[in-house]
Amino acid sequence: MHLIVSQLSIDAADPTALARWWSRVLGWTVTDEEGDGEEVELAPADGSATGWLFVRVPDERRVKNRLHPDLRPPDGSDQATELARLLELGATPVDVGQQDVTWHVLADPEGNEFCLLRSTPADLARAQAG
């Protein structure tokens, strides 16, 4: 028997603001905003993915993340469209030494890195089938 991932916890200076930002990025729902703002949950409404828990921490982030999400454009969109949308929402480009790659490294408003991949799920399925 294997363990089940309950959620991904993310340290944040302002859990509510960061959860709301990621909600706009992912289209997920902030599921627990009732408490004292020390922990805020975010999850897809259909339960299709493991939720994220934003937890208030007093210390500032100082180094590159050891873990980060890789995001894929949805079918019907593309990397350029999603990049423009993410930048409009306040994401910032980040250079982590990635050189010449097909993805974009970005940071959320608190500086947490994430990657925007090039292919959609349909593109990926075609590549794996072919």
What does this structure look like?
The chain has helices at 15-26, 79-89, 121-129; strands at residues 7-12, 29-32, 39-43, 51-56, 70-71, 92-93, 104-107, 113-116. The protein has 130 residues and is α/β, with parallel strands linked by helices. It is globular and about 50 Å long.
| Biggest sheet descriptor | 4 strands, mixed
Number of helices: 3
Helix content: 10-25%
Order of adjacent strands in the largest pleated sheet: 1-4-3-2
Rg (C-alpha, Å): 16 Å
The general outline is globular
Estimate what percentage of residues fall within beta strands: 25-35%
Q: Distance between the terminal alpha carbons, to the nearest Å?
A: 33 Å
Would you count the extended β strands for me? 8
Uncertain runs are: none
Mean pLDDT: 92
Summarize the structure.
The chain is 25% helix and 25% strand. It is of the alpha/beta class and 130 residues long.
Keywords, separated by commas or semicolons:
130 residues; four-stranded mixed sheet; alpha/beta
Ordered list of secondary-structure elements with their pairings:
Layout: E1 7-12, H1 15-26, E2 29-32, E3 39-43, E4 51-56, E5 70-71, H2 79-89, E6 92-93, E7 104-107, E8 113-116, H3 121-129
Parallel strand pairs: 1-4, 5-8
Antiparallel strand pairs: 2-3, 3-4, 6-7, 7-8
